[in-house]
Every structure is written in C-alpha cells, then in structure tokens.
Amino acid sequence: MSTILYNANSTLVSRYQRKVKLRNELNQQDCSDEVRFESNHAKNSPQYLQDLCKSVYPTCLHTRFEEMQFPALCVHAFVALVFKNFIKSWFGTKVPSQDPEFLCEVFALVQRLIVHVESHEVHWEQLILDDVPFVVFEHYQMPKSSRLDNDRERGPSTTANYICSFLGNNSTLEHAFVKSLYESLLCGRILGSIAEPYLMLEILNEAVRSRIHKSQSKSSTFLGKIRTTVDFVRLALKSQLQRPSQLQRPFAHRYLFSCLRRLTQFEQRRPLLYCLFKYGESAAAKISAVDKVLYCLFQTSVSGKIASGPQVGRIFLSLRRLVFPTDTAMGPPRPVLDDHKKRLLREECEQNLLQLLVLYKLDSLVGLSATDVKEFVGAIVADQDANAHLLERLLTCAIAHIA
Q1: Helix/strand/coil for 195
Q2: Cα(302)–Cα(254) distance, rounded to whole angstroms?
Q3: How do residues 123-161 score in pLDDT, each as one tens digit?
Q4: Is the pTM of this model over 0.85?
Q5: Which residues contact 253 (CB under 8 A, 6 or more apart)?
C-alpha cells in the first residue's frame, strides 16, 4: 500500500484501479439482481406496508404489524428498507444481520423511539418560532467561507456523538454503527440528495402551488370567508384558558418576527408600517388575551398538525418514496436537468412565489418585489453544499428538542 501512496508510476496503481472497477461492477450487478418487492394490495395502504415490513422482519413480529397504527407502520416500513439496503451491506458479518434476534432488537429500538416521541412534550413554540428562524437567519447572513469550513466537518459528528450518549453502554461497535447510520446514511446520502438545488426548487414550487390552490379554494366564495371568520372567533373564545407554562415569554417576542423583519428589511421598505407594527407588537405582548389568541392560533394551525400521527405518517411515506422509489433498493441518482429545463423550473417557481406574495398582500404591505423573489430562488440554487449544511443544522435542532 505504501508503494501506491508514494510512487505514482507503480504498476500496482493500475492493478488496484482494475480491482476497484471490478468490485463496483459486481456491486451494481447485485443491486440489479435484487428481488423486487411486490404486494397484492394498493401501494402505501396499511396492508401494503404490513407486507413490506413482513418481508424484512422475522415471523415472530408479523402479528405486531397487523395490530399497528398507520403512522407507526410508515416508520417501520422505512426502517425496514434502511436495514435491508444499508445495515446488511455496510456492516456485513460485523453485526448479526441475519439473526432474527438482532432484527427483533432493531424493531424494539424503533418502537421505543416512537413511544418516546409520542409521549415526549416537544416545545414547538421554541423550535418553530425561535430556533429554526435563528438557524435560517444565521445561515444566510454568515459569510459562505466561515459557514462551511468548520461547521460542516464537525456538525454531523457532534450530533452523532450526542445520539450515542443515549445508548447507555460503551460498546465501540454499537457507537460506530449509530455514527455511520447518522453521518453516512442520513446526512451523507439522504440529506445530500434532498439538498440538490433543483430538487429543493421542485419541492418549494410544489408546496407554494399547493398553498395557492388551498387559499384560493377557501376564499373564493363569500361563504368561505364567513366560515374563516367564525372559526377565528371560536378560537379566540377557546383561548381564554390559562396559558401553558411552556410559553415562557409573550408570543409577540418570539424570534420569528425579528428574523422576517431583518431578512425582508421591513423597516427600510415600509418605515411607517414598521412603526405601527412595533406598537402592535408591544400591545400584543402586554395584553394577555391577545397573547392567548396568538398562542392558540399557532397550536391549531401549526403545532397540532405537525405533531399529529397522520402528518408523521405522511412525512415517512414521502421520505420512503424519495429514497426507495421501488421499495426494494435505493433509487438511482436524480437525472441532471439541462439548462432549458432549469430555466423553466426557475421561472415557474418565481411566478408561483410572486403569486403567493400578491395573494397575501405581502407585495404591498412589506414591499417585496419580483427582484426579491429572483434573489431568493437564486440563493437556493447557488450551492448544494450550503443547502446540505442548512438541512443538517435544522435536523440537529429538531433532534435536540425531541431527545
């Protein structure tokens, strides 16, 4: 090996390269020969997910899947494919991947994690209204050189060490196993794929288009507007309950509002409206009734939907479709778009974002224009490493709150 490292003209170099090429070809052939998973039930139905889990887990666990709720089934189906594609191939004989007892331990570990997340009280206000806006603002304000040089190298490793601290033992192999799953699989493969600029642009475009469609369908009729007003009044009446102890400071003082103000330069674009906004923010913080209404509105429209079981199930369904499109092996690399398709996607996304701003009157109230939309889209497609770094930091933030 030292000859290869220090003598570039050695014949061992070509021999070593041929071995690597042959090994890669064999691995690709093994993947293509993988038996495709098939089920007689509709894809993503509970019965389909049960069949998918049963194809990986031992027989002694099959009755558990038949009694399991749909969100938990979605989680176990994704973990089953992760085990099948990565744990078996990456660790080989170092872990007893063929032992049914080992699979039962994996199942029990995932089940404990699901129960912990369901019973653990996550401070959604702090996560969504404080920590996530701070991470996003710091990411886009920090110079690119300092943003990627240090944090990108130590971020996943630090988070993996934090996760390993909950294992409760000093097993070097188990720690290496968990670190490899987090750093190589989750941050390296999954987040690295999602961070592809034009894939993120497609996801954003689809989300904006869905939001526009829902808003137009709700407010298209006079009856729909009346229903929205009645729902808000009902929410205001319910909010007269005592404010939960987890709300440690007024809702109006959350960092989200400062983040939006600084990113949009609101005080420079609309100084008079900014002055009125600050007076309203101060009044909302002092009047407890207004603070309770804002809290309950957040709980109903954001927190309740994110923490609900069906929403968790949909997240893991989407993640499984993205990573394992055939439910057998990891999907092929995303085809590279040509310049014409990239330009069309950018233009469509810019038009939808501008339409969303007009729909919510943000173009006139905040002063955002088509130029700002183009700059925002340009920031997304500028650098895949920067996108991956942002996703890793957001994931670390979520893990800290859940753990």
Answers
A1: coil
A2: 15
A3: 888 899 999 999 999 988 876 555 555 555 566 788 888
A4: no
A5: 281, 285
Evaluate if residue 13 carries a pLDDT over 60: no
Instruction: State the SS3 of 204-243.
Output: HHHHHHHHHHHHHHHHCCHHHHHHHHHHHHHHHHHCCCCC
Furthest-apart CA atoms within the chain: distance in Å: 81
112's tokens? 């404990």
Q: Which two tokens mark 41? A: 């039930």
81 within 8 A of 327, measured Cβ to Cβ: yes
Angle at 304 between CA 256 and CA 311, to 5 degrees: 105
Q: What is the DSSP string of 243-301?
A: PPTT--S-GGGSHHHHHHHHHHTHHHH-HHHHHHHHHHHHHHHH-HHHHHHHHHHHIII
74: buried, middle or exposed (CB in 10 Å: 19+, 13-18, 0-12)? buried
Residue pair 114/69 in contact (Cβ under 8 Å)? The answer is no
User: Are residues 160 and 182 in contact, defined by beta-carbon separation less than 8 angstroms?
Assistant: yes
- Please give the backbone phi and psi of residue 57, each rounded to the nearest 5 degrees, phi first: -80, 155
All residues at 6 or more sequence positions from 116 whose CB lies less than 8 Å from its CB, including other chains: 402
Q: Which tokens is 251 given?
A: 């809702």
For residue 265, which amino acid is it?
Q
Q: How far apart are CA 183 and CA 160, in angstroms?
A: 7
What is the residue extent of each domain of the chain? 1-33, 40-120, 221-335+385-402
d(CA 308, CA 117): 11
Q: Per-residue pLDDT tens for 51-64? A: 999 988 989 999 99
List all residues 6 or more positions away from 44 whose beta carbon is below 8 Å from its beta carbon.
317
b/e per residue 345-383 (b: at least 16 CB within 10 A): bbeebbebbbebbeeeeebeebebeeebbbebbeebbee
Cβ contact 164:178 at 8 Å: yes
Contact 55, 37 (CB under 8 A): yes
State which amino acid sits at residue 139.
H
